[in-house]
Amino acid sequence: MKYIFIKAFKKTASTFTKLLPFAYMVFIWYLSSKPSDAVVNTSLPYDKLLKESLHLIEFAALYILFIIAFAATGRLRPRTSKIAAVMSVLYGFVDEFHQYFVPCRSATVNDLLKDITGVLIAYLIINRLRFKKPIRHSR
């Protein structure tokens, strides 16, 4: 009985981690459908800076969720890391295109560049930590 429970839990956890990036994409879509002040409105002098930096964080997080999904299924490799980065960047394009049609929102190249920068930074960090072999000094 205990073994069946553990096996069911592992399968559920694996399915959950595979679906998490797509659920997050739906969440991004939802946020993009709202005016920019609808979700985050601090009324502080640096409110605009905070919202602009969220582009980097938002798409870096999407890339990381794809990495977690690949790792949970045992498929995390340098190639799948690139696929995760490309998927995240492509969704940045989709998000900006979507915002073009939303009243009170705008689609800008600067926002897209921030999305790409967030993915790129996360990609470089993950790949440096996960795939680079340590340099061995011979003595």
The oligomeric status of these chains comes to single chain
Helix content: over 70%
Estimate the mean pLDDT confidence: 86
Number of helices: 5
Task: Tell me the count of domains.
Answer: 1
List the secondary-structure elements in sequence, H or E.
Answer: HHHHH
C-alpha-based Rg, rounded? 18 Å
Stretches with pLDDT under 50, minimum 5 residues: none
Shape: globular
Q: Can you offer a commentary on this structure?
A:
With 139 residues, the chain is an all-alpha fold. It has one domain (2-130). Helices cover 76% and strands 0% of the residues. The protein is built from 5 helices and no strands. It has helices at 2-32, 36-39, 47-72, 78-100, 109-130. Helix 1 (2-32) packs antiparallel against helix 3 (47-72), helix 1 (2-32) runs parallel beside helix 4 (78-100) and helix 4 runs antiparallel to helix 5 (109-130). It is globular, with a radius of gyration of 18 Å. 19% of the residues are buried. The mean pLDDT is 86.
Name its key features:
single chain, 139 residues, mainly alpha
Summed up, what is this model?
The chain has helices at 2-32, 36-39, 47-72, 78-100, 109-130. With 139 residues, the chain is mostly helical. The chain is globular, with a radius of gyration of 18 Å.
Q: Would you spell out the secondary-structure blueprint of this structure?
A:
Blueprint: H1 2-32, H2 36-39, H3 47-72, H4 78-100, H5 109-130
